[in-house]
Design goal:
It contains ten helices and ten strands. The chain has 378 residues and is α+β, with helices and mostly antiparallel strands. The strands form three sheets. The protein has a four-stranded mixed β-sheet with strand order 1-4-5-8, covered by helices on one side. Strands 2-3-7-6 form a four-stranded antiparallel β-sheet, with no helix packed on it. A hairpin with a 2-residue loop joins β9 and β10. α4 packs antiparallel against α6. The longest helix is centred in the middle third of the chain and has 37 residues. The two termini are 33 Å apart. The relative contact order is 0.11.
Length: 378
């Protein structure tokens, strides 16, 4: 086993605490959350009270002022039990950083403490019904009208959309300017003209509330613009490497958990009076899976190291996202096969992890888009 060298004793203590939280406050309820289509709001508040939200935010805004390894630990412990209903990572490590990096002091002091406590839930609205990975093609507009912008359009597939109290919206402030006409806005869901559509029913990640959002002449104060008008696309490109690395981290941890469940199953399950793991074809498959996961773990950990050194570029992050998510689904699919008929039963964690993993190759930029981005660097 190749040892991981990223973490300190302090990170290990956090991992123990996070693991207890996930096993006591999340795992016993997750099946019920899958059936209702969203997690209980109470778990957000409990996570905030435990310091598990916005850990990398400065203490002055309610965070722990911790390094991003704290966030890595929290992402891994959530993925380890396949708690895909929790939108904590997006809330803490995508929404909050946009406000921290590009928001005014007023926006930071008003919203970040509420995100850190779980009082407010954050979402980011990029995808539209007719626009997926092509962010330059968004049709939602925000047209300046005095000291406000009038926001019109719709978004879909929005994680945390149903629970959201705050949404970062990608909109065109100059529809004729292409990428240079995109801006980002902080939209409070209490604003008039904002509405939430139905919760979307998905093939996997059934406990994660995913919704449509609609904007009908929403009057967004000009002070809610993030950074400069027309710079939104550049801001998105700066933040996307960390988002994609988070997906890779989840993918590797999910694959590791899948292997653990499968090792346990194949050691206990018997066929022809022998444990499945004693058959060479099974043992060799497990060996291949272990090798693939180990190689990916080393690569992703190195990417985490580059992130901490502020040296992670977009192409490398895209490689991590592409390779890790493709590996994840391939591994989990083989683990399902080794479970036989039980691998198709929803009560088994491997089945839910397999179904949940399929979208990892789609959101955050599809595998095909990752290849396009990587190819441009060659």
């Amino acid at each position: 086993m190749i040892p991981r060298t990223l973490f300190t004793e302090e990170h290990d203590m956090l991992r123990e605490s996070a693991r207890r939280f996930m096993e006591t406050e999340v795992l016993p309820h997750h099946e019920r959350w899958e059936e209702q289509g969203y997690v209980d709001r109470e778990v957000w508040q409990k996570a905030g009270a435990a310091g598990f939200l916005c850990a990398s935010m400065p203490e002055q805004y309610g965070g722990a002022g911790a390094d991003q390894l704290y966030s890595v630990v929290l992402i891994e412990e959530q993925a380890r039990i396949n708690a895909t209903g929790l939108g904590f990572g997006l809330h803490s490590e995508i929404v909050a950083p946009y406000i921290l990096h590009y928001g005014s002091e007023h926006l930071k002091s008003h919203y970040l403490p509420k995100l850190a406590s779980g009082e407010m839930v954050g979402a980011i609205a990029m995808t539209e019904p007719g626009t997926g990975s092509d962010l330059q093609g968004v049709q939602t507009t925000a047209i300046r009208a005095g000291d406000h912008y009038l926001l019109n359009g719709s978004k879909t597939f929005i994680t945390n959309g149903w629970h959201a109290d705050l949404v970062i919206v990608v909109a065109k402030t100059d529809p004729a300017a292409g990428a240079k006409g995109i801006s980002l806005f902080v939209v409070d869901t209490a604003m008039a003209g904002f509405s939430k559509g139905k919760r979307l029913k998905k093939a996997g990640m059934k406990a994660q509330d995913t919704s449509e959002l609609f904007f009908d002449n929403v009057r967004v104060p000009a002070a809610n613009l993030l950074g400069e008008e027309g710079r939104g696309f550049a801001y998105l490109m700066q933040e996307l490497p960390w988002e994609r690395l988070q997906i890779a981290i989840m993918a590797v941890t999910s694959a590791e958990a899948g292997l653990d469940w499968t090792l346990q199953y194949t050691r206990e399950r018997k066929a022809f009076k022998r444990a499945l793991a004693e058959f060479q074809t099974v043992a060799h498959t497990l060996a291949e899976i272990k090798t693939e996961i180990t190689c990916m773990r080393v690569f992703v950990d190195r990417c985490i190291g580059l992130l901490l050194e502020k040296k992670l570029d977009a192409a490398t992050a895209s490689m991590a996202k592409l390779a890790a998510t493709e590996m994840q689904f391939k591994v989990l699919d083989r683990c399902v096969q080794l479970h036989g008929g039980y691998g198709y039963m929803w009560e088994y964690p491997i089945t839910r992890a397999w179904a949940d993993a399929r979208v990892q190759r789609v959101y955050g930029g599809t595998s095909e888009i990752m290849k396009e981005l990587i190819s441009r660097s060659l």
